[in-house]
Amino acid sequence: MARKPINYWEKRSTELMKRLEKGTENTISSLIQAYEQATKNINKEITRIFNKYTEDGKLTKKEAIELLNTKETKEFYNNLLKEINSVEDVDVKRKLLAKYNAPAYSYRISRYQALQDNIDIELKKLANIEQDITKIRYVDTIKEGYYHNIYDIQKGTGLGFSFAQIDNRTIKLMLNEKWFDNKNFSQRIWRNQEKLANYLRINMSADNMSGKSIAKISKELAEFMDVGLFNATRLVRTETNYFANESEMLAYEELDIEKYRYIATLDKKTCKHCARLDNQVFYVKNRKPRQKLSTNTQF
Predict the structure, then answer these.
(1) Does an H or E element contain 282, and which?
(2) Cβ contacts of 50 within 8 Å, gap of 6 or more
(3) For the whole model, what pTM was predicted?
């Protein structure tokens, strides 16, 4: 059978990317919901602290400092422990409990510390959720990319052949790949979470909250959280593209394909680097080898 023309492969590649993008948009919708819920929970805590003690919804710097330095109630401490126990990540939960179960902690916690602790726990819960829902997207991307490319090659060449199923160890290996900044996808999520937590600690201080209404503080919080959401959505798009490309290469390796042609979608969204690579031919063997999977890897 005659070899399929270039436009056949372009069409099949475009169809795959459209399907993957649709799945990515669904994942991003779930991320938006998770960030909105976390923002709502933090706002609830802000309202709890400030609403009882202000008639006009505003505090002077002196009033804000006095209020936030006031010792919290035992009821809040008990509720805080319940929130910690709802954290899914076992290691994160253990570290939080070690901190908040310290003998002197419940006797010295201030309202300011309570707010910061609430933010910290909400963001850790958010990172857990983000890790769970993006992992599902990446696993689906790897599987779909692998099998779709093998199917396209069979159809494009007119040849039927057997091939290995992609196994869980291979998927773990790909998920664990530290392909950028010496971090895997999970580590990048937790790094972004810590950056957002530090950002909120600075901006949700007594100095920054004094003289503002609860509505103003809540609006600013939403804006800060939107920055975190933007970074999360950018990350999931980047990671999905990476896993789509890796699954394609995995299919080539499985079929002993020696060379491949890079086809870029040339439009306004195409980066300059990708545009320069368009239509160039590369050897599969020259790709950077994947890292070995650690025996301690857990996802």
Answers:
(1) strand 281-283
(2) 57, 59, 67, 214, 217
(3) 0.80
